[in-house]
Design goal:
The structure is a single chain. 69% of the residues lie in helices and 0% in strands. It has helices at residues 30-41, 46-58, 62-84, 93-98, 103-136, 145-166, 168-196, 213-224, 243-273, 286-293, 299-331, 350-369, 374-406, 412-431, 444-470. By secondary structure, it is mainly alpha-helical.
Length: 471
């Protein structure tokens, strides 16, 4: 175990140190670093789950909604990448805010990030359960429904915990291959759909005058949900090779690449479902349906299996990201000091990895025991996770503004970038609170606010204890 290091930020770009915190330095290649962000986004799940939901709001403007969401996420990605070029640390956006904003803002960001990653892990554990049961078909009937659900949740959480605990390099390689195969198969189906329709441009999908402004606004907000987690490569600051170069590239590339993928998928799905007996927003298996329509129906079950393993990869990447944020929080007194330790052989934050995986499992299992389905868990936990991500993204943009001002490097372009990113995230958050959504979604903002109050209360208790110990 190394002594407690202190993350530093330079007085200029690309000169910061990168403390290892006991993690394996330089273990991950640029492609493996990119895999962390891509797997947290889990791009293969959006064409199946999120695109139909966006279509229900934006209709023919679904691809445009994703285009707007991509623009907003690129603003945030540019802010995060600007910091990542100067400082690398497992703490991600938390460390960036720590160096530029008051301690309470940094603590808020840290707890928001940890909340977001754990909730996302719980969400995709629910998706894993739901998809696995659908793939099992009649065989699922041989085990009681609740027991089967809990068993599948345990497999997803336990498997992610084991891989994250053992070797981050194996984790990254596994995530890279899983997501690449899934995305490739979906791209084949979308390409076949476009080929079937003659590769002509669908002007109806860009006819803005026919679209509902309120539907487009809500559609853009929902499309943003597909991108959350793109910044998670920053949690590998101590383990990435040449982090001041590879991490900023991974952050921007992940947002841009998956954004283009989402736009193309949305465009193809809207075109492919035009005139279908069951509309896109009412079809539970849109990609297998399009595969069948294109004469390659045999690929449908393979895609479903790919989505299943993609959800496992997303669970794994969220556990990896959450564990590294929690480890650095422990170094700074925001969590128990035992969580600062890394495994002597594996060079992974073992205790923090176990904690993140167990919390994700407990959340999913508790919802299951209350009668929630895997699809319910996916939607509920995913919605709550978004609040954490939006908080961290907004704080990161404000922190960059403060950092550049402090170093007298603040120009007009930087002001526009940071304020636009911060205001966009606040607008998205407000859009999830007002108008008041139906139950149970209307309770989620209260749950998140209560969590933050408890987290900040804990920080106050720790500070009072530390002050007394000094005296």
């Amino acid at each position: 175990m190394h002594g407690e290091p202190t993350a530093t930020m330079s007085d200029g770009p690309k000169t910061a140190t990168s403390p290892s915190y006991g993690l394996r330095e330089g273990a991950l290649s640029p492609m493996e670093t990119l895999a962390q962000s891509v797997s947290t986004i889990a791009p293969s799940t959006s064409p199946t789950f999120t695109v139909p939901l966006v279509f229900a709001l934006a209709g023919a403007g679904t691809a445009l909604a994703y285009g707007a969401a991509l623009g907003l996420m690129v603003l945030v990605a540019l802010c995060v990448a600007s910091f990542a070029r100067e400082s690398s640390s497992p703490g991600s956006i938390y460390v960036y805010t720590q160096k530029s904003l008051p301690p309470v803002c940094a603590a808020l960001t840290a707890w928001a990030l940890f909340f977001a990653y754990v909730m996302t892990a719980a969400s995709v554990i629910g998706g894993f359960e739901s998809f696995a049961i659908s793939l099992m078909g009649r065989w699922a009937g041989y085990i009681a429904a609740m027991k089967l659900a809990l068993l599948l949740e345990l497999i997803a959480a336990g498997g992610a915990m084991y891989v994250a605990y053992r070797d981050v390099k194996v984790s990254a390689q596994l995530m890279l291959w899983i997501e690449a195969i899934s995305v490739f198969l979906i791209a084949v189906v979308v390409a076949a759909t476009l080929w079937r329709h003659g590769w002509h441009f669908d002007h109806r999908q860009v006819a803005v005058h026919t679209m509902s402004p309120s539907g487009m606004r809500l559609g853009v907000m929902l499309a943003i949900f597909s991108f959350v987690g793109f910044e998670s490569a920053t949690t590998l600051g101590a383990e990435a090779r040449d982090p001041l170069r590879t991490i900023p590239r991974a952050v921007i590339l992940s947002a841009v690449l998956v954004g283009v993928f989402f736009i193309v998928c949305a465009y193809g799905e809207v075109m492919g479902f035009r005139g279908a007996a069951t509309p896109l927003d009412a079809n539970s298996s849109p990609i297998p349906y399009l595969a069948a329509q294109a004469g390659i129906g045999f690929i449908g079950p393979v895609i479903n299996a790919g989505v299943l393993v993609s959800m496992f990869a997303c669970t794994l990447s969220c556990v990896i990201a959450a564990s590294r944020v929690m480890m650095l929080m422990a170094h700074h007194g925001l969590a128990h000091k035992r969580l600062t330790k890394t495994h002597a052989k594996n060079d992974t934050p073992g205790g923090a990895s176990v904690l993140a995986a167990v919390l994700a499992f407990v959340l999913a299992a508790a919802a299951t025991l209350r009668g929630a389905s895997g699809a319910d868990i996916y939607g509920w936990m995913g919605t709550m996770a978004v609040f954490g991500f939006l908080t961290a993204y907004a704080m990161g943009a404000v922190a960059l503004l403060a950092h550049l001002k402090k170093e007298k490097r603040l120009g007009f372009g930087s002001v526009v970038l940071t304020t636009s990113a911060a205001l966009a995230m606040v607008a998205v958050m407000v859009g999830n609170v007002w108008p008041v959504p139906p139950a149970p979604y209307k309770y989620f903002p209260t749950v998140y606010a209560a969590y933050l109050v408890l987290a900040l209360g804990w920080m106050g208790v720790v500070r009072m204890r530390d002050a007394k110990s000094v005296q």
